[in-house]
Write a structure and sequence with these properties.
Layout: H1 5-22, E1 26-29, E2 36-38, H2 44-61, H3 67-91, E3 97-100, H4 105-134
Antiparallel strand pairs: 1-2, 1-3
Helix pairs in contact: 1-2, 1-4, 2-3, 3-4
Length: 135
């Protein structure tokens, strides 16, 4: 399990997902109010999607015996994390001034890690199919 590279990518996606809960995605202000940090815990839907993406990545690690299911769940985790980023940008429109925080890298890394894991799962599946042909 740990010797497969997609396990490391999924673990990294999960860690980034849980880190994105506390780290700000955007720092901005409305009108003359002081700047505030916009995190995933600020909005209920964002919090649910962020936790869901992190838990999907953790669960996906342990599905190494069933590669087709692991692949499909990885794709769903990728879709949830991309939806999460789109919602982040939609919710940041309410601020008049501000900028994306440096710690937003965690949110952008989640779909990248899911994509790398999906590519690793696909590569493993091709390898197993080629070995089966030789028998």
């Amino acid at each position: 399990m740990i010797q497969r590279v997609q396990t490391l990518w999924l673990l990294a996606a999960s860690i980034c997902g849980f880190a994105a809960l506390k780290m700000p995605f955007y720092v901005g202000s409305v009108g003359t109010a002081p700047a505030e940090e916009f995190t995933a815990t600020t909005n209920t839907l964002l919090m649910i999607l962020t936790v869901a993406a992190a838990i999907v990545a953790l669960v996906d690690i342990f599905l190494y015996n069933n590669r087709p299911l692991q692949f499909r769940i990885g794709l769903s985790g990728l879709a949830v994390s991309i939806l999460n980023i789109v919602l982040y940008f939609i919710y940041t429109k309410k601020y008049d001034t501000g900028a994306i925080a440096l710690s937003a890298v965690f949110s952008f890394a989640i779909p990248a890690f899911f994509l790398m894991a999906i590519l690793g799962i696909r590569k493993d599946d091709k390898l197993v199919k080629s070995v089966d042909r030789l028998r």
